[in-house]
Amino acid sequence: MVGYILRRLLAAVPVMGIVAVLVFLMLRLTPSDPAAIIAGDFANDQQIAEIRTKLGLDRPIVTQFVIWIGGMLQGDFGESFFYKKQVAALIAERLEPTLSLSLLAIVLTVCIAVPLGTLAAYKQGSWIDRIVMGFSVVGFSVPVFVVGYLLIYVLAVRLDWFPVQGYQYLRDGFGGWLHRLVLPALTLSIVFVALIARMTRTSVLEVLHEDYIRTARAKGQSELKVLVRHALANAAVPILTVIGLTFATLIGGVVVTESVYTLPGLGLLTVDAVLARDYPTIQAVILLFSLAYVIVNLLVDVAYTVFDPRIRY
Amino acid sequence: MKWTAKVALAAALLAAPLASAEAQKTLRFVPHSDLKILDPIWTTAYITRNHGYMVYDTLFAMDANGDFKPQMVDKYDVSADKLTYTLTLRNGLTWHDGAPVTSEDCAASIKRWAAKDSLGQKMMSFVSGIETPDAKTIVIKLKEPTGLVISGLGKPSSNVPFMMPKRVAETDPNKQIEDFTGSGPFVFKKDEWQPGSKIVYTKFDKYVPRSEPASAFAGGKVVKVDRVEWRPIRDHQQSVNALLSGEIDYIEAPPHDLHTLVKADKNVYMFNWNPLGNQFTFRFNVLHKPFDNPKVRQALLYAFNQEDFLKAVIGNAENYKLCKAMFICGSPLETTAGMDDKLESNFKKARDLLKEAGYDGTTIVLMHSTDLQVLTNLAPVAKSLMEKVGLKVDMQSMDWQTLVARRAKKDAPDKGGWHAFLTSWVSADLLNPVMMGFLNSGCEKAMFGWPCDPEIEKLRNEFAKATDLGKQKEIVASIQKRVVEYPTHVHLGQWYNQGALRNNVTGVVAAPAPVLWNIEVK
């Protein structure tokens, strides 16, 4: 297992390298100029040129790439063009809201989707099944921002149960942290609940007709035990795969959700950096997201062995 | 207990710590964008200028009538030959770190500002030296008289000549400052700054306001709250939701299409804090055909009318004004000289001019910004009016930052360059010919568009030398007449963007930038 993990981590190096090259090239080849943006409305050619030189943007692309990669290898992500802060520090500041939102969204997703999907499979063809499947279709058809606005209108503006926007850091109290995060996490999780509930239903349905389920029932085990210990456990591998794959979508959702709810996380930082053409920040954040994606996939692969002892690496 | 009541109770309990934390006298303000750069001399960004007005003070300041009044200055004297200005600082001026404000601090600040700002550079071209005979006296000596000293030091918009401690003001003007000590009415709390979500200021207890009532940027800057929190909210709908639910107190500028939503709530009201408003403009690139020919540019002065643009973007006539004065209706230098028959959509006259100019059907590349609500509808209106007089237009859509990058390029329009675009200016940036950036016709030294006209430059220099308002008005009228012959840009009307406030917020001072002194939160 350790060997497998090491091999996978080594395999991630060229993946990250390719991402780095692509991100760098895409930014340099798009028609934008951070120097002109920084210089502002009143700048003349000379002022823009001075800023370009200061930022090193007048150097050949290859030189810029080598300097950036060289810095990255030494742990230096560069300095944000706009905030004049080290990008690493900027990311560190923004990590907590994004991690909080992602984790809460995943917890909510799993806690809602897996029981719902299992129940729908168990009650196949019933009104419960139809409601869950109907919700699934709506859930992954409606864009995140529409769900967000609806939840805000009902739960925040009309009922006043939750704040409309903003984030409270954990250090300032768990209650406030949770209170401000429930609505964004719910918004973000709805699409995943829909997807995973549907996947769970399909997987559980497949195993419910297996011989070992019949055997378990014949041995007199309760339906709950049959469902959880025998059906769900054996259906877990495809569900885990979907959870892993949806992580990429979650990142996209984080960007939109953080913008709608004004959560000062990496999603909002990405939007701001893209709008301002803050190259060092965009590059670092996208690399970080790619790394997170690689790690989550690795964790999912490792988790397979827990649920299915037949899988060996 | 019903389940809904239980959830509500749980939510209330969770919210309790928040409520107590926010019980202090805090003004929660949604600015028009996030604050990224903290040096108001290094950048011209309006958000940084507004931050500057919180933290720093100015020697002179513009009042509601457009007159320049002493602010940090107690009294000043101009010699009979108008070559020496002696400024004496007020008593009790203190930096946020407790040190007294000195004339040396101010002299260094003037120099740094003048190194970056175009009006400052013009002013300094008349200055032979700045002396500081004692800690409270600044003596500005001139080579020849100019009317730019007081108006320059009281310049209301970017770059504003904010005063900073000498050690800060000695920072290279092309490098951002890292010490944010000011002497203004609020203290910037760098330790509480959360880039992207919260910018915090507290009342500066040692600030000594002037005794006069607040009037725009002049008069007494009396702070009536303990703390101000800027909370940038990207999503306009969300900022309105937050205002309606009481999470924030004041939105600087909700977009016009949300005004109805705001006005429908009896707990909030709207207030036009900037009576001078803003001005839409159409900018030519004179480097390329056909706009290298002034006659083709003149044709657009006849083809356009302001109302089509203002209706398409602003809609409600309460929020715009047709104004043929380049230098802003309601300002001391307002004039319509030379404009009587222009901006009336006289298509026949426009077509005649194009014919006279020998327009050969060259396609005009018109850049269209799509992501800023107040600019999005401008280019389609321009395209429509231009096509009505026979111009071929290729309207290319892009986000604003792409436009900003492209407008700096001098390449041919079919090779990544451009012919024209539309933008908006805060009126306070357009109050005289030296401040108005688009009027700079210094060829290579001019802003993007690069107009090149010695006559306009000569008149701008004359304006800089004029010391009385009558003479300045005469020159401004001449400049406007010359711009009709050699158009640098077309002004497309004034518009206003009102702030939205909860009823418990009172005392907002009207000024060309949102200022937060004098405001009470009940």
Architecture overview:
The complex is a heterodimer of chains A (313) and B (522). With 313 residues, chain A is mainly alpha-helical. Chain A is built from 12 helices and no strands. Chain A is globular. The termini of chain A are close together. In chain B, α9 (294-303) packs antiparallel against α11. Residues 11-22 of chain B have low confidence and may be disordered. At the A-B interface, α2, α3, α5, α7 and α8 of A face α1, α7 and α14 of B.
- Helical percentage of chain A: over 70%
Biggest interface: chains and residue counts?
A: A-B, 60 and 57 residues
- SS-based structural class of chain B? alpha+beta
H and E order of chain A: HHHHHHHHHHHH
The fraction of residues in strands of chain A falls at under 5%
Please give the alpha-carbon distance between the first and last residues of chain B.
35 Å
Structural class of chain A: mainly alpha
Query: On the 0-100 scale, what is the average pLDDT of chain A?
Result: 87
How helical, in percent, are the residues of chain B?
Answer: 25-40%
Broad shape of chain A: globular
Characterize the main sheet of chain B.
7 strands, mixed
Report the C-alpha radius of gyration of chain A, rounded.
24 Å
With helices defined by DSSP (H or I, 4 residues minimum), what is the helix count of chain A? 12
How many strand elements of chain A?
Answer: 0
Q: What is the subunit organization of this protein?
A: heterodimer
